[in-house]
Amino acid sequence: MNGWILAAAVVLTVGMGATLWGVATGPLGRRVVAQNLSNSIVCPGLLLLAQGYGRTSYVDLALVLALLGPVGTLVFARLLADELADDPPQAWGATWAVAAVGTVVVLVLCAVTGPGRAMVKLLVVGALVVGGNLIASRALSGGFPGVRRG
């Protein structure tokens, strides 16, 4: 086991432990936020595993998850709009923490990878993970001003 795999194990264990606790307990808002955060924590874990095992296919998997994860959360936000409107979830601390983890992982991997196609792919995955997480969290916490629900 090298340091990359150990870092991936720590990120996934801590992140998924908190996510499973959020999904298993609490109101609907906490469960939907935990689902959103699970998507955002698995992507950095996959990037670390890709570096640890030397398999670029894990980066492709992280890219697909970074694209589809926030879309799934937005679908949940749309379908559960009435239930979430009564008590919108507020999880900005967790959202920014997961965004920071994703940013740090991507920047470290970019420094290790060096310039090239792999670095561009890492930056795209990082931008999708952080941007998608922030947009989906904003949609869950009450939406965007001027946009009508329903």
Helix percent band: over 70%
Number of helices: 6
The parts where pLDDT drops under 50 for at least 5 residues are none
Largest sheet: none
Please tell me what the overall shape is.
elongated
Key features?
mainly alpha, 6 helices
Description of the structure:
With 150 residues, this protein is mainly α. It has one domain. Helix content is 82%, strand content 0%. The protein contains 6 helices and no strands. Helix 2 (28-53) packs parallel to helix 5 (92-113) and helix 3 packs parallel to helix 6 (117-140). The longest helix is centred in the N-terminal third of the chain and has 26 residues, at 28-53. The radius of gyration is 16 Å and the shape is elongated. The N and C termini lie far apart (50 Å). The mean pLDDT is 88.
